[in-house]
Structure prediction request, 270 residues.
Amino acid sequence: MNEMKLVVAGASGRMGCSLIRAIDALEGVTLHGAIERDGSEMIGRDTGEIAGLGPNGITISGDALATIANADGVIDFTAPAASVEYAGYTAQARCVHVIGTTGFSEDEEEKLTAAARHATIVKSGNMSLGVNLLSVLVERAAAALDASDFDIEIVEMHHRHKVDAPSGTALLLGEAAARGRGIDLAENSVRSRDGHTGPRETGTIGFATLRGGSVVGEHSVILAGEGERISLSHHAQDRANFANGALKAALWGWGEKPGLYNMRDVLGLN
Prediction:
């Protein structure tokens, strides 16, 4: 089989450079192109040089449509508006679109769903294999432990530059807990506590957000009962975890029919 031709979106960022290095190290894939927002000062730069690999002849482009047109897949850890734009292009190219971007609005989610009629979209709040396994464990634990006996709290910490909160991973874990309990997360989540809040409402799922330093990502789901507490945690130490998971998702999606998938599909956990 030919190598899968991949385009990296947001190529000059931390995740973009990690993806470029991961593609270089993995058999079966090749870097076909790299894109940045139009007007970026990184346009024209060699991707191998910015990723610390040495020149590879693939330069960053500001023309996303042309770059994606002949690709087999796009890997995208950018921003919601950019991801929606790229989804339109992957739908035209009828290729794979792996989306690790978080913080989408309801309207943007609907546009991604529409694009998935023609593109094979794998979208997840976290591309780490470990986090997605954790979400399965959280769902099963939430289902096994009654809400009247165990409260659920989700604590996450990321680097100071992260702009959305709670993180996409925290929400992914919250959705898993809500599925286990058979409830709607939006109607049962507590995102902040300040002042005289009164006692904790039974059955809610709480979120606590920490930001600081260079933390790649730490998430804990705490199930707290009377006299005992269970903590299910994941600590990301290197962005290569997310890059490797994204490449696994891209290769899995290559040849799959158009649709909107997640990492549980990729891992066979659904």
